[in-house]
Design a protein that fits this description.
Strand content: 5-15%
CATH class of the largest domain: Alpha Beta
CATH superfamily of the largest domain: P-loop containing nucleotide triphosphate hydrolases
Structural class: alpha/beta
CATH architecture of the largest domain: 3-Layer(aba) Sandwich
Shape: elongated
Number of domains: 4
Number of strands: 8
Strand order of the largest sheet: 5-6-7-4-8
Length: about 450
Amino acid sequence: MLTSEQDAWTLFLECIEERSSAVEFANWIAPIQKIASHPDRIVLEVPNIFVQEYLLDNYKKDLALFLPLNENGHPSIEFVIAEVQKKKTETLSDTPSIHPVSEPLIKDSFQLNPLYKFETFIEGPSNQFVKSAAMGVAMRPGKSYNPLFIHGGVGLGKTHLLHAIGHYIKEHHPKMRIHCITTEGFINELVKNLRDKTLDQMKKFYRSLDVLLVDDIQFLQNRMNFEEEFCNTFESLIHQNKQIIITSDKPPGQLNLSERLTARMEWGLVANVGIPDLETRVAILQYKAEQKGIRLPQKIAFFIAEHIYNNVRQLEGAINRLSAYCKMLGLDITEETVERSLSELFQLAPSKKVSVENILKSVSLIFEVKVSDLKSDSRSKDVAFPRQVAMYLAKELINESLMKLSAAFGGKTHSTLLHAWKKISGQVEQDEMLRRRIDMAKRNLEA
């Protein structure tokens, strides 16, 4: 704590202003006013409870460095909510004042990425279902899946689908009122309207929408007051049969949100965007290369796709880097130039001892089946073939008896494992796609 409490708040503001963005500082910190300072505490005036909670949630440790501490070691701050008395000063004037009409805080428009349309979304087994659901919602807003909750990892196409829905509705349902916003944007709008005392205007705007598109709802976690307002908006639109589409990095049940909001987000359809398989990644690479005017040989596309497999954005970044590298140095696109320019992006699994369990996990990821299915008695082709690949890898990579290896596959016999090994050994020499998949599995298992 600093010795001069009189200057402590000013120093705290200077420190935070350097570390935060201009928008964050203007919305959350600048509106706070110091109205008194005592040796044992400081008195701050905040526009509303949201700003108070934001300050304590995000800067408690910093405040402790500058301000007096209470007996529990926490910043000793007395908060005062700004009184709604400032308007009265205007009414005391002898001459009636004319208040100019302020510009709407929320415009009835939205910014959609022009590249994010259904036509430019590369479809594959991992995203086929969610794309179909998105198309269904776009064609019949409010009448099919409502809400539509899209979740998946970073860079897999959630925002692409969200904007694609917006583009389609805008084109085919031009009379509908659409608003697309990030969760952070919604919170900033709420704070601004609370500060400007125009919350009713914001509520009226949102409740008059036909379609609401919300990106990254996970940023609403641990913000109960903001969550409550969003939940009220959500319920109002749903009860009017208005369409809501939400994206997140996790399904509703795994988010730290209230049971009330979680239950409402699970009302409609929850759809996952999975990691694209090898063929889809190759298609994405070739499409992105075509957009850049690059001729990307299929062999090179497969080579890149085998080394970058978790993130579509990284695939696009790989094409951008490869294009710049080859153009600046006047080089052709070969495996050598790819390795030289993209080695930093190539993904390697952490070192680990090869075991049947590791093989099953690797194969399940590449063939998109569950490990439990691989150990089951299912004879479905979608399960039986990956199981045979796993058995082949087990015999190739693990120095154990056939009996012990086969037992790890849910109690299969050693003759079953031997049959699988012979079958895959014969096919791998003739099937290029299978060979590449097996090579990927081996790379994942490299010690």
